[in-house]
Amino acid sequence: MTAAPDLSLWAAARRRLLADPVARLGLAVLGLIALACLVGPFLTGHPYERIYYDYPRTPPSLQVYPRPETVGPALERLALRMRVRAEDVTVEDGTVRMVLAADKPVDDRALTFFARSDLFGPATLLGRSEDGRRLTVSVPVRETRFLLGTDALGRDLLTRILVAGRVSLALGLMATGVALLIGVAYGAAAGYLGGAVDAAMMRLVDILYALPFVFFVILLVVVFGRSVALVFLAVGAVEWLDMARIVRGEALAIRRQDYVRAAEALGVGTGAILRRHVVPNALGPVAAYAALLIPRVILLESFLSFLGLGVQEPMTSWGVLIAEGARSIETSPWMLVAPALVLVATLIALNALGDRLRDALDPHTA
């Protein structure tokens, strides 16, 4: 009977991670949120930038809009704009049949007001009186749903939350990728080279730590203007500092290992040692920290957007939506609650997954 082969660090970590119910739940939540953000905007039936002028600050509901009691007042408002009177109004099977009357002949072009409305579709002319002062028309009612309500401008909040998730998650992943790329290379080089080189490199990190982050972002906004790329640059330029410190500490320990000394004795170059020995053996803590860095970046982007320094209209992010909701919390609390709940669920899932990944990559874990 042959013994089972020993698992590598990554294989053992993957097995422990998948056996953890909290880690599986975090992965499931993240997967559902990511899938909803990718596919959901195509299924809601509302473009994220579409403004429904007849539905500002509409509360969340499973019912279809417009409500039956709102059709009559909406027709009266349209008739007033068309300078006609709506008479003999009947609503049946989602279609409104009425007579438009006026003291002088009614211009057919006035019927375009129906198509411009968010409540009705294009009108069909069924008949006209001989003097042209009475038109019989049929107008379909546009049925729509706003499951999470609308914002102050009348835009569907569910669609905007899903589109905002694309931006926030993409920024979190990209900024984390930049932090990994710069921080791992910088920290590995500083820790392995040591001495005066290490001291000089880490003093630069200390100087960058001392810079006020918000002041740095404001300076970038003044020079380059507001854009998503600016947020990505600002966050990525700061978050690699912690990564560099972590990798440097690992590299200081790895450089004293026998396999590194053997590679040096064989004449292997510094670049090859960093690439083959230092960086691969430091990836355990790096992977765990990267999983915890993503929620930090998302929260930081939300903070910048809340201050008005982040993503700009018509694009949106969770931070932008939360900032808009905070300004309308007294009259429209759903505008704050809905995006905040999605952001909180994402951050909790990422933090839980990062904690479990850190434990799974611990070689002393049983």
TrEMBL record:
Q: Which domain of life is it from?
A: Bacteria
* Matches recorded under InterPro entries: BP-dependent_transpt_permease, cNMP-bd_dom, MetI-like, MetI-like_sf, OppC_N
Topology in the lipid bilayer is annotated as: Multi-pass membrane protein
Family the entry assigns? Belongs to the binding-protein-dependent transport system permease family. OppBC subfamily.
What does the UniProt keyword field contain?
Cell inner membrane, Cell membrane, Membrane, Peptide transport, Protein transport, Transmembrane, Transmembrane helix, Transport
Give me the Gene Ontology terms describing cellular component.
Answer: plasma membrane
Name its species: Methylobacterium nodulans (strain LMG 21967 / CNCM I-2342 / ORS 2060)
- Protein's cellular compartments: Cell inner membrane; Cell membrane
User: Membrane-spanning residues where?
Assistant: 22-43, 169-193, 213-238, 286-311, 331-353
ABC transmembrane type-1 domain span: 165-354
Give the protein name, as stated in the record. Answer: Oligopeptide transport system permease protein OppC
Q: Which part of the chain is the Cyclic nucleotide-binding domain?
A: 91-137
Query: Which GO terms are recorded in the biological process aspect for this UniProt protein?
Result: peptide transport; protein transport; transmembrane transport
